[in-house]
Amino acid sequence: MFAYRLALTLPLLIAAGWLFAKKRKSTYWPFVWGFIFFALFAFFVELVPYLPSYGGYVRYVVGIVLTVLVGRYAIVALNAYLARQKLAEQQPDQVRREELSYDVALARLGKSVCPGCERPVDLKNDEIDFCPHCGIGLFDHCGQCETRKSAFPKFCHACGTSAAPHAPLASASGTADSVTSGSAPLPAV
Fold first, then answer.
1. Dist. CA 185–CA 135, nearest whole Å
2. Are residues 103 and 138 in the same domain?
3. SS3 call for 33
4. Residue 67 is part of which domain span?
């Protein structure tokens, strides 16, 4: 009976392993993950109870192996994410803005975190116009009415003017200071 059940569940586990390695991020990911859970269920319910007296230890061994594999995957994924964040923080402000979705930026600002690096920022402080962690511009001034506004919305909240391509703060003379030159932006009058 054990050999018969092993002949049924082993191909399922092999197919589930292949699907996890190759297709877990494909368009059909719900079916892939459903099959993986089905294969694990078949292993633990259909095969493990029919193992000899050491069957209880199989669960422990599988648990340890899964913990090691999932832990390693989480560590590798976290390190890859941190490396991507470090590279993103080295890019110019305008490039980072183009890669950042408008909805994602607003959602992150709603949580009081920087849209670029996802670190906490005191958005209620009127003195903060740039993220102190990564340098992305958080606030600028409307080109029409000079109101200080968030740099991410498409229109000014005060006058409804379409936002120009995210320029840094405007100085009193109306010219934009260069963020890349390293000079501090001048406040609007």
1. 13
2. yes
3. helix
4. 2-89
pLDDT digits (tens, 9 = 90+) for 69-85: 999 999 999 999 889 88
- Give the domain-ending residue among 89, 120, 142: 89
Domain boundary among 89, 122, 151: 89
**DSSP-H helix ranges across the chain:** 2-23, 29-41, 55-89, 93-99, 102-110
pLDDT at 113 over 50: yes
Regarding pTM above 0.70, the answer is: no
- Residue 102 shares a structural domain with residue 116: yes
Q: How many domains does the chain have?
A: 2
Task: Choose between 149 and 36: higher pLDDT.
Answer: 36
Distance CA 169, CA 129 (A): 9
Q: Count H helices, E strands: the chain? A: 5, 2
As a whole number, the mean pLDDT across the chain is 77
Tell me, yes or no, whether 41 and 105 share the same domain: no
Q: Which two tokens stand for residue 176?
A: 């934009």
CB-based burial label for 82 (10 Å; 0-12, 13-18, 19+): exposed
Confidence at 122, pLDDT banded by 50, 70, 90: confident
Distance CA 38, CA 140 (A): 53
Q: Are residues 144 and 104 in the same domain?
A: yes
